[in-house]
Structures are given as C-alpha cells and as structure tokens.
Amino acid sequence: MMHNDRREFIRKAGIGMLAGMGAASGILTGGGFERTTSAAWAAVPGEHGRRWGMLIDTRRCREGCTLCIESCHHTHNVPAVKSPDETVEWMHKEDGRELLGSLCSSTAALPALCNHCVEPSCARACPTDSIFRRTDGIVAIDYHRCVGCRSCMQSCPYGEVSFNWSDPRASLKNPSLDYPTRQRGVVEKCNFCSDRLVRGKKPSCVEACPEGAISFGNLNDPSSEIRKLLESSETLQRKPELGTRPSVFYII
Amino acid sequence: MRKKNILIIGLLAALLVVLVSSFRAGAESESPAEADAARVDSSACVYPKEYMQTHHMQVLEDWKNTAAHEGPDAVHETADGRKFQKNLSTCLACHGSNRYFCFSCHAYANVTPNCWNCHISPLDTP
Amino acid sequence: MIEQALKGHRSYLIWSFALLALAAGAAYASALQSADGFVHTGMGNNAIWGLYHAQLPFLASIAAASLAMLVPGTLQKHSFLAPLAPLAAFLGAIASAMSLLFIAADLGMQRRILTLFLNPSPGAPASWQAPLLLLFLALSLAVGWAQVGAMRKGVKQAVWIRSAVMIAIPAGLALPVISAFRLAVVPGSELWTSALLAPRLMVSGVAASAGMMLLMAVTAEKLAGFKAGEEALERLAAVAAWAGLGSLALTGLEAGTAMLGNVTAKTTALSLLYGNSPFALASWFSLLAGALSTGFLLMPSLRRSSIAAASFGALLALSVWLQSGLTLILAGQLRNGSVAVGYAPALPEILLTTGVWAGAVLIITVLLKITASAQLEREGL
Q1: CATH number where C238 lies
Q2: Which residues have C-beta within 8 Å of that of residue C297, sequence separation ≥ 6?
Q3: Complex ipTM, two decimals?
C-alpha cells in the first residue's frame, strides 16, 4: 500500500512539474527573440503599449559635429569631468566600426547613447531596483535610490552608464535650471529625455541636430514616423547578438 | 491522500511559475500609457495650505520614493480631480518665485533637507 | 567566557594589538572615503570594481565551505569533525561579516545602505546577496557561540542548533551561487558567464577553508594548547587536497573547452587571465601554488606532519584567494583584451582591505583562544 502510494505520488508530482513548466513557458512567450538583422525588427507579438525608440541616420551625421552631445549634456547638467578615468557622459561619438561591428563600413565617429534595451542587463544587475525599465520602454535610474555599487555600469555591454567618481557640480560651468544635477556616488546615463517627453517635447539631441539625422518615436505604433523609416531602410543595432534588444537603431 | 497529492502538485507548479517569472528580465508590467500632454498644473497647491505647512515633507517624500518608478504615470491626483506631475519643479513653479520660501522656514526650524544636493536651489538661480 | 579574550601570553597580546592597529587603519581609511568618495582609490572608468569587490566571491565561497565542516560536525554523532564544528561556524560567520563590510565599503552612497535590504528586486541576483549574508552571519554566529558554550559546560548541545544549521545549509550554499550569478548578468564576459563559475567557487572554497582551518588549528595547537585531534587534522588535510584537485580539474575543464572549441570569446577571456594581461603573474602564481600544494597534500606521509599540512593548506588558501578573489574580478572586468589597462589599488584602499582582514584575524585569534581555554577548563574539571 505504502509502496503504491509512493509510486503514485511520484507519478503525480511529475505531472505537476510538467504542468508547472508548461504554465511557466506560457508566461514567458512574450520574451525571447527579436529579429535583429537589417530592418527586420518588427514588434514582438504580445508586446503592447509604448516603446520609445531612436533611429540615427548616420549618412546625415556630419564629421566633427557634436551639437547633439552638447545639447544633451547641457540640458541634463552632465558634468564635463576632465580626468579621462572619471568621465561622465550620456552621449558620445565613437568609431562606427567599434560601435556597430564589421557590418558598418564607415569608421567615422557616430553618436552613441543608452540603448534602452527591452532586456536590459543593467536592470538584472541592480541590487536595489534603482535602474529599471519603465512601462514606456525607457530604462530609467532612480537617483534617489541608487546606492552606487556600479553593478549596472559593469554589466552594460555598451558602456553607457557613468559613475560620479567626484562631485559633479564642481565640473559644471553653466547649469541648466530645468533639470537637477546628480551627486557624488551615484550612476547616471541617458534618460531618453523623459523629462522633456512629459512636457510634449522631443529629445534634445533630436532637436539639436541641424541635419535632422535623429528620429524618435513609438516603435510599437505601426503608423509612427520611426516605424516607417525602419521599414524602408536597412538598419543596425549595437551588439544584437547579446539579446538585449536595443531600441536605438542606425541607418548606415 | 489524493487531496494531499493534488495540493503538493499545485504547490510545485505555483512555485515553478513564481520562480521562473521572478527571474524574467527587469521589465515592469507594461500598460499602454496614452496620456502624452504636459500635465504640470501648478495653478493651485496640491493640498490646503494648513496641511502643507505640517505635511509637505511627507508629500515630497512620497513623490521622491514613487515618481521615478511610476515613470510616465507619476501623476498625483487630488481628491477633487486635479492632477500634478510628481516633481519638485511642480512645487517650484509657484514657490520658486519667492527665493527664500524654503529657506526662511528651514533655517528657523534648523533643518537641512538634502534636496539641494541635486535639485538646483532657488537661491542659486540668477 | 569572554574574559578569556583579554588574558594571555605576552606574544598573544602583542599580536592582538598589532591586528587592532591595522583595523584602526581601516577605520581611518573608511572615514577618509566617506568624506571624499572614491578619489582615494585606484578605481575609475577602467577599473569599475577594485579590491573591495574582489574579495566577495572568495569570501562567499569560504562561508559556504564552512558548512562542509559544520554540517557533519553538528548533525552527525561522533563525527571526527565535531571538535572543529564551532571553528567552522565562526569561519562562516566571519566570512559573511567581512563580505558585508566589503559590500558597504564599495558603495558610492554609503548612507543608503539600508536600501539593499528594503528595496530588493527578486530578478536581480545581487539583491539576494546582502540579506542572505546577514542571515548566514546571524545563524552561524549563534551556532558557533552555543557550541563553544556547550563544550565549556560539558553538556550536550541545544536542540535548536540542529534547526539553525538546517536553515543555514540552503542560505550558505546560495552564497557562492549568488556571487557567480551576480557576475553572470554581464553579457559578453566569458570569464563571468561560465556555468562552471558557481561550482568552481564552491569547490575551491572548500579547499581554501580547509587549508585555512588547518593553519588555524595547528597554530592554535602549538601556541594555545587547542586540541583538534590528530585524526581531524589529517582528514582536514585530505579534504583540502581533494577539493584542491577538484578545483584544478574545473579550471582545466574550462580551459580545455575554450581551447579545443577555439571559441574566440573564451580564449580571449583566458588570455585576460594568463596571457597578455596585468594579472598574468598573479594567475600563474595562483595556478602553480594550487597545483603544488594540492600535490603535496595528496601525499599521506606529508599530510601527517601537522606543520607541513598547515603550510601547504595556507598556500592553497592563498592560491584560491588569488584565483577566485582577485584575478576573477579584476581581469574579468577588462572589456577589451588589447587595451588591458592596469589597476593599482591606492593606499587608503589597501589600508581598508588589510584592516578588515586584520580585524577578521583578530576575531579568529580571540575565538580560538576562548575555545582553547574552554577545552582546558573542561579538562581541568
């Protein structure tokens, strides 16, 4: 009797495990893979709501022009720290090959910023949920909560998180009054201008570009301008093989 | 015995589901956020003056703790339906007109809140 | 029994005061750091984590490994490890306390430290680290203290100790796994995303903690009359030897897979350790010291000499500390093999690190002293 019970139990428990796994996989269907080759990036089924995204047309990006970066850094009071080992940046320009790999034929410097990934590894690294993905797809930092452990900085494969090794206010000449500064000991990075979006404005780099090379919009809205551009052009993302699903795209 | 088995199986399944879903990447539940417009209504205070005199720190503490994670939905709705962006600049849109508004009281009460470590103090504005 | 800590031979007091002075240095460095931030450290954009974080995987593995001696020593009757059980418990407690101190030292915003406990996100392995360390610290400290008390009074140990150890098992085993998973969230870093990292930490932790316990027990025996028992020491040496062999095997498996598969990312990760890298010397030293000490400890004739066993055990522990402590973190965080930028810890950073270690050694010394006098007292009855 006891023996039978045990056998029965094992059988039932096995079925339970299978059922549990089935249920779990049902929950997980939303995540997973995104087609990342060229323009084939369409919204994943089951993904609803807004996902802010950016498209940089590198053909229109001028050599030596840094207006987008200057505008971004001024708007958000990003300190211009002198020491190269302590730089803080939300946006910077980097060699196209370094940025996008061998598919990119250009070695011209291209703008780079936080990719606002759908699967952000920084958020998985943060012990306090201080860096997290918002409902509109923006990966944001709660500067009131960040403990400064630099795990997100370590885990960002794009190196887009900066740490305030020293007091940022000391390196801030002409602060913009509309946005706070940060303090020593917290990390910071691009916020996709969530502060401007809420006021109905476009990101400052988009507005600052004299060539109109940067487009911004909702990637989950088939009628948005950025979706049309993505569908009509060949685009690249940074390190798509890592599965982070960046929301920043580049036209080469 | 049978009931017990079913219970155990159910618990196992639930445990698996919770485990697997808790280890899913950081995305918080996505809900369509349609409201786009600027909602910084600073025409009248969030709460009556008397309440704010004694409780503004709790209101600000609550905003401080919740605003970033609520992201686009970080809107404070009062009982009579007025909406405020949860942001210190919402307050300063009115109270910033008097540069000493915060400081005269805080100096008197001998408190030094750390707001101005990051937020730009009205005293520093030109 | 605490009064035994303050009495003792002159050399004991000198040693204790020297350690105390080093610990005071740590307090000074920590005050300096909380005033000025990380400017006094060698950390920067090229070395995001430094000496502090580099201690964490090693200490987590030591804490987990203390279970390997605590569990049989406590739960099994007549285990040869029984006299060492309180020592193992204290080792686990100290390793987790040190981890917590190093986590605190590594925070940019130290006054927000409670956030680590108040705002966890279950999906992030790092969230589990501090709370679990705290739990493990409390459990192992309570168990060790109660066991020494029981030993002194010559009574059977309390029943709750068994339950405390039962809870400590999953908590302790989770520590190296979390340490490894904390690194595994970094995509593209082959040194850190390896599935072998957690088992390697566990096995090498057993080797290192057995080695350290050999050193501690033999030193305490020679100087304070602590009695671990001949058999316990020899078995401990055997544990160190076999775990050391396991750790070497896992290192070899990792390297073999990388080189046979000729996976560029993996061989690049290996070259960050052993090749053209600022950490190559430390890595090679660690590998050779590990092989040497494991080899000698595997020889029964050498193992029986307590002095030889203790010195090779210490060498093995040093090798593991270099491997899973220092080089794993410092080399693993280098982003690009060609631009291997060195990291040199600054003086306050070194002061703080050595100070925490000195504090730990001081506590171990005092605990060993108390345990030894509890043993002597009991024999005197």
Answers
A1: 1.20.1630.10
A2: C237, C238, C240, C241, C244, C303, C309, C312, C313, C316
A3: 0.88
